Amino acid sequence: MRSRRIWATTAFVSLPVTFLWLLLPARRDDPPSFPSPRPAKKWHVDPEKAHQQRDRALKQARTWHATDPHSADLSANPSDPSGLLSTDVVECRHLEKAAGGTSPKFDCVLADGEVVRVKYGLTKEINAEIAATRLLTALGFGTDRVYSIQRLRCHGCAREPYYTTKTLDYIHVRGVASKAVPDEGYTDFEWVAVERRFDAVTIEAEDDQGWAWFELRDADAAVPRLRAERDALRLAAVLLAHWDNKASNQRLMCKSPAADGSCADSIAIIQDLGSTFGPSRVDLAAWTKSPIWTDRARCAVSMKMFPYGGGTFPDGQISEGGRRLLARQLAALSDAQLTTLFTAARFPGADDHQGADANAWTRVLRAKIDEIASAGPCPER
After folding, report:
1. For residue 345, what is the domain's CATH number?
2. What is this structure's pTM?
3. Claim to verify: residue 188 and residue 247 sit in the same structural domain
4. For residue 210, what are the domain limits?
């Protein structure tokens, strides 16, 4: 073990100077006081009954609730009851946690103990997630609340917290453990996405993390009255080109679980919408070519043309009820609302193609809305 620890320490010391610079905070200051992280709500269930309760919750899960899209302000952040995400400079304390995924992000503790997820850098996931969550929320689908923050000050953050954590995690396995940056150091980040989770309890059973789209399809027969709203969500996923749809990118939630873990008000949501409007993330040319229907007469949809051959999303047929529901909600949105959506999510600056201004994005979305509205009636299966 001693030789491994020496090797790890030597490797750390021999890191390039440029990387060591990234470990340092941009500035130093007297940090404000931050409380301990507020614990997340937990699903309490007998482990032997977890799978049964989880499967039952998925069968009964709602995916939509009535909204008035016409009144939605797509240019604004979600409501902010605490006010902590509405200040000129949002402040938080870096929360040490293993770095997962591939996009730059970190968890941060706000002044009231709430833990939020921060995505930063030049990744287009920020733009895609802001626009997709606002659009789906306006349409009536459940999503996490994603805030566009112009300036965030992270106390205890390295200049590159995601890549620093990944490197230190690697070294830590070999016996070196340390906090990269003390809390009195801080780094400012510009134009980040701050994510608050949907306000409910996550339902997970061991290896069942989230839900796959083929599971939702198989659950349709249990509660036929939910078919229309589930088809509306499926069609919305096709509209957005939500190709990165592995089970962990959807989440099963419960607003008020019973003492035994059962749930009478379960909700199925899309958890990660960062790989949308593409499929190559905020790519107008590619999104324009992404079809709504593979067979318009049959109201058939597919994602096989996307990466991973469609992932967990099976080819299927949208019901007339599902098509009408989504078409009605989309028709309530004005071109002015859609243009402010893309402007607020900073799409023109994120797309690499010339001429991809907010109005261009609006025209393509309106064309896709028309594809949905003019398709029916969908045949019954």
Report:
1. 1.10.1070
2. 0.90
3. no
4. 57-70+200-373
Residue 286 in any domain: the answer is: yes
The answer to the question of residue 128 being in a domain is yes
Question: Considering all CA atoms of the chain, what is the largest pairwise distance in Å, rounded to the nearest integer?
Answer: 71
CB of 194 within 8 A of CB of 146?
yes
Contact 43, 201 (CB under 8 A): yes
Q: Which residues of 227-263 are buried (b: 16+ CB within 10 A; e: fewer)?
A: bbbbbbbbbbbbbbbbbbbebbbbbbbbeebeeebbb
Q: What angle do CA 111, 114, 117 make, to 5 degrees?
A: 110
Distances (CA, A) of 285 to 156, 280, 336, 352, 372: 40, 10, 22, 10, 20
Q: By the 8 A CB rule, do 255 and 200 touch?
A: yes
Is residue 379 included in any domain, yes or no? no
The total number of structural domains that make up the chain:
2
Contact residues for 11 (Cβ-Cβ < 8 A; gap 6+): 171, 174
Q: Where are the beta strands (DSSP E) in the chain?
A: 27-28, 90-95, 105-109, 115-119, 145-155, 185-196, 201-202, 250-254, 266-270, 300-301, 316-317
* Cβ-Cβ contacts under 8 Å for 125 (sequence gap 6 or more): 103, 119, 193, 274, 275, 281
Read off the tokens for 243: 């190709």
Radius of gyration of the chain (CA): 22
pLDDT in tens, 49-75: 999 999 999 999 999 999 999 999 999
Q: Which domain-ending residue is among 166, 196, 226?
A: 196
Give the span between the Cα atoms of 290 and 287, in whole angstroms. 5
276-318 pLDDT per residue, tens: 999 989 999 999 999 999 999 999 999 999 999 999 999 999 9
Q: In 3-state terms, what secondary structure has residue 117?
A: strand
52 belongs to a structural domain: no
- The alpha carbon of 247 is separated from its chain's Cα centroid by a whole number of angstroms, namely 13
